[in-house]
Specification:
Length: about 180
């Protein structure tokens, strides 16, 4: 009996020391999913027409392709890219939404401020779009945007939108505040 216990103990210690065998890629769908999206050979860039980039943003299954299309739209600039970038705020992937917000903010006040204010106030728009609009308005750092952000921070029914609006207000106020001088 002591011999059997000793053998079990030796076997258990040996099992601890052995590395688990890797499952070759492709054997299970779960492992394949962990490998992430495949990088296609032909990623969108600013040489593509706006219409094609907008189509990719709305219909492409690969997140990397959509994210690149959003960046390409932002690089192209102009009024015709505003709505495709706004539609990208609805994307299920955070990286695509973030690219769209940065792209919209980079287009400038003249092209997007009024549209972002409309989106922020639109109770029919989902909260991610309204939150994205709050972030973009916060990047503009001006009194007109601040007015819209204050209203949303106090009145929007979504905590998500209120937090984004308040964070943008805080960033604005911090940027406007004179630096505190250190007392020696």
């Amino acid at each position: 009996m002591a011999e059997a216990k000793k053998e079990k103990k030796v076997a258990a210690e040996k099992a601890k020391k052995e590395k688990p065998k890797a499952v070759p890629l492709g054997e299970t769908e779960a492992i394949d999913a962990l490998a992430g999206p495949q990088v296609p050979e032909n990623l969108p860039d600013a040489s593509w027409p706006v219409e094609k980039l907008a189509e990719v943003v709305s219909k492409e299954g690969n997140m990397l392709v959509r994210a690149n299309a959003v960046n390409a739209l932002a690089k192209k600039g102009g009024a015709e890219v505003v709505e495709p970038l706004v539609s990208a705020l609805k994307d299920p992937e955070d990286v695509v939404k973030a690219n769209a917000m940065v792209g919209l903010a980079g287009l400038g006040r003249e092209l997007v401020q009024d549209r972002m204010a409309e989106l922020l106030a639109d109770r029919e728009a989902n909260e991610e779009i309204r939150g994205g609009a709050a972030w973009v308005l916060g990047e503009m750092m001006d009194e007109k945007s601040l007015k819209h952000l204050k209203k949303a921070s106090e009145e929007d029914e979504s905590p998500f939108v209120r937090v984004h609006a308040k964070a943008s207000i805080l960033a604005y106020e911090t940027a406007k505040a004179p630096e505190k001088k250190e007392i020696k």
